[in-house]
Amino acid sequence: MFQSPSNERLLRFLEQSPTAWHATASMSERLEAAGFERLEETDHWVLRPGGRYYCTRNDSALIAFQLPEAAPLALRIIGAHTDSPMLRIKREGVVQGRDWLQLGIEVYGGALLAPWFDRDLGIAGRVHVRTREGRLASRLLNMDRAVAVIPSLAIHLDREANQGRAINAQTQMAPILRQTTDKETPPSLEELVGQWLRHQQEADDFESVVDFELGFYDVQPPAQTGLEGELLSSARLDNLLSCFCGLEALIASDHRQGALLIVNDHEEIGSGTASGAQGTFLGDVLGRLAEYDAGHDGPFEEHRVRLIQRSRLISCDNAHARHPAWPDKHDAQHAPQLNGGPVIKVNSSQRYATNSATGALFRDICRQVDVPVQTFVSRADMPCGSTIGPLTATTTGLPTLDIGLAQWAMHSIRETSGAADPGYLIRALTAFCNREHLD
C-alpha cells in the first residue's frame, strides 16, 4: 500500500526541486519525455487536434495541455503552485562580523521560523549572467550540500527559550557561511555567486554575474518514514506534492479529452504577479485555445465564454491534517487524516472555491475509481486560509473545486504527509482528465 513507483518518482522530484525554477525545469523535462511539445508565449501557436503542448512563464510557472481529436473543446483543468516559504538572500546580503561571514535574508511567505535553526542549509535559485558574447542568460544554481547554518542560542544562555520566545528574522537568522577575520575584505555577493556557479557547472561559460534570486533550503533529502513506511517527510510538500500528482495524472491520462495543468508561482505571497494566479497566464492560454476552437466555426468571444463554462478547474493545495497533539485545532467532524484520501476544502465565505456542484463532481469521480474522500471545514472560531482556487475562479469564471492532501507542519522547513495519499490523488485526477462529461 505504501510502496509504489510513483512515490519513488515523487521523492526524486522533491529532491531535484529546491526552488520554483527547479521544479518548473524538472516538470518540463518530464513533459518532453512524455511527448509534449514546448511552445513560446511570444510565438504564433499552430495547434493540431490531439496535440500535447506546454509553455512556461518566468521559468517558474508552467501550463501543459492536451487537445482532443474532435471539437468542441472542454478542459479538465488541474491547478497547483510551485513556490514554498523559504529564506531569500538579500541583494547586498554579505554581512561580515568579527568572526563569521553571514548572508542577510528576508522571509518569503508565511514560514515557520523555529525549524530553520540548526539545519544543514544549501543555496539554490536563478542567476542571470552576461555571457562571453555579451548576451544576458539565465542559469539555475543548486548548492546541494551543507554550506550554511543558523545556530540556536544555548538554553544555558536563554532559560526562557522553551516559553515561546519570539524570533527576529533580521537580527537572529542570518545564516553563517564561513569563519573570517575583521581585517579581511569580504567578497561581494556577485563574486560568491560566480564562484558557486562555476563550481557547479565545471565550466567558465560566462563573463560575470548580473543579478540573481537565491535562497536557502534544507539539504536533508526527502524520505519515506514510519515503521511501515506510511509517512512521507520532505521540504516543500506544500505544494510540490500537488504539482507532482497533477503532472502524473496528465501524463497517465488516455489523451482522449481536453485537459490542462497549470502550476502558478507566488501563491505564498498572494499570487499578485505575472506568473501568479492573479496574473494573466491562464487567461492568455485560454484565449489562445478559444481562438483555436473558434477556428472550427463561430465568433471568438462566443467560443471563449463557452470554453470556460464547459471546463472545470480542480485547485490542488494541501490541507491541514488533524495533529495528534492538538486535536482541538480542528472541527471534530472535519478533521482530515493522513492516508485518508483527498480532502475537499469548503468555506462559506469562499476562501475555498468549492460549491455543491463542483464538490459533487469530484465525489462522483472518486466513487468511480474507489478513492476515499475527506472534507475539511475550519472551526467556526478560527480564520480560514485560501488558495489559488478563488483567485482563478474570479479572474477566469471557471467553475472551481478546492481539494488537497492532508499534511502536518505546513510551512515548516520539513513537512509530513501520508504515503498512500499521492496514489489516491493521482488516480482521482487521472479519472478527472479522462472523464467524458463534466456536468
From TrEMBL:
Protein name: M18 family aminopeptidase
Keyword field: Aminopeptidase, Hydrolase, Metal-binding, Metalloprotease, Protease, Zinc
Domain of life: Bacteria
Catalytic activity, EC: 3.4.11.-
Entry's family note: Belongs to the peptidase M18 family.
CC per GO annotation: cytoplasm
Any Pfam family matching the protein: Peptidase_M18
Co-factor(s): Zn(2+)
Record-linked PANTHER family: ASPARTYL AMINOPEPTIDASE
UniProt-listed Gene3D superfamilies: Aminopeptidase i, Domain 2, Zn peptidases
Coiled coil ranges: none
Gene Ontology molecular functions: aminopeptidase activity; metallopeptidase activity; zinc ion binding
Region named Disordered: 324-344
Record-linked CDD domains: M18_DAP
InterPro entries, alphabetized: Peptidase_M18 (IPR001948), Peptidase_M18_dom2 (IPR023358)
BP term (GO), one: proteolysis
